Amino acid sequence: MAYCAPSSAGPFGIIVGGSGLVGGSIVYHFKKWGYDILAPNSKKMSLANPDDIASYFNKYRPDFIINTAIAAIDANPKLAFDVNYVGSINLAKVAMALKIPYIFFSSAAVLPPGLNLREEDHLPLSADITNYAKSKLMSEMTLRHLGENEGLDYTTIRLAIVYGKHDHKIQGFHRMLFAIADQSMPVLLTRPRVYHSYSNTRKIPHFVRHVLSNREEFSGQTFHFADPNPVELAQLILTIRSYLELKSPREVYLPLPMARFGATCIQHLIRFLAKIGIKTRMPPELMFLENFYQSQTLSCEKLQRSSFQDPFPEETVFTRLPDLIQYYLTRWEQLNLMTSKTQDFFDPQKLSEEFLRNPAQLLEAIHERKLSPFMEPRFNPSCGVRKSAATRSHHC
Ligand SMILES: NC(=O)c1ccc[n+]([C@@H]2O[C@H](COP(=O)([O-])OP(=O)(O)OC[C@H]3O[C@@H](n4cnc5c(N)ncnc54)[C@H](OP(=O)(O)O)[C@@H]3O)[C@@H](O)[C@H]2O)c1
Ranges for the NAD-dependent epimerase/dehydratase domain (predicted)? Predict the structure, then answer.
């Protein structure tokens, strides 16, 4: 089969997992910087299906591959193994065959609890760790093996808890934000002085681009990519609460045994509901319940010693909170996900209230040009290109 070359001048990359939280931000930034990017979704190329991978790369010959794909965090062993491990290594094999760099995203889930953990640290590979952690750790180890023995040009980027816009699955940090905003966290599910590291999706693409442009320095290496200062979980929760002007969660620390007991009760309730035909599931984050009670901070020393310069050194999860809260609350309210009372603040023009209660009056006001919720398109006739179907043929 003939393969497609990139249509623009920029390097041509394939980002697997490009519809996700991390992948989406990389796709967006790389396109903005003029890279030619393809981001096949899992229907077009599933990492669980080696034939998909083979036929996709028979068609496209990129200059690099970035893998940010993961199966659901609570996926069964088969899916976790097939997608997170076998799929990741199959992509590495493609990269090796094409002699191009492979950027793999891993997770702090491979690390034990502790402070200032380094890139060399990891959990022992055993049956006891979660399927997610096991598959990530195995991938890291096989990539190192392929790098050392078969010349794979790879970089592993280990992320901490990720924060940023466009987490449409509402996972991890954003699940916690949701629980607070929805007032379904009556007390603090942690204990004092529990610290974690956080990774910012606005900074990740800058690092990936730097890593790709400096292969000599970054090839065959693992890097922690997180904000330099760890964050106390209780302080973060209480700061979110204060931005939202809520009374809960109250500043009461729920002891871990009670939290475990609560989780077990929920599990029993879910099983009971299933018996009477009501299908519901445990929030997958509850499998990380213990982590809310244990510090885990990542050393960023190696990152800081590297040639990479943080593009937004002043930015932290705290400085991003107002923007993230505004973004997610607007989105969750619009999707009717919030069970608590919505707040007027997020619709300053109050047009949605009019839409809800007085649609006829709203329409009249619009037609009489008393208000306009529309954009005013202004185009310069001498600018812009009309892309033909042919030049876009390789886009998904
Ligand atoms: N989010 C965090 O807090 C966090 C923390 C530490 C590390 N990480 C790491 O960062 C990376 C990205 O995570 P994320 O939070 O951005 O994940 P995400 O939002 O859940 O996105 C997962 C992506 O994987 C794709 N995918 C799922 N199954 C696939 C399959 N069988 N074949 C191909 N693609 C498939 C999905 O594509 P479709 O939608 O098309 O199925 C989606 O684009 C992962 O390696 C993760 O381990 C994330």
Answer: 14-177
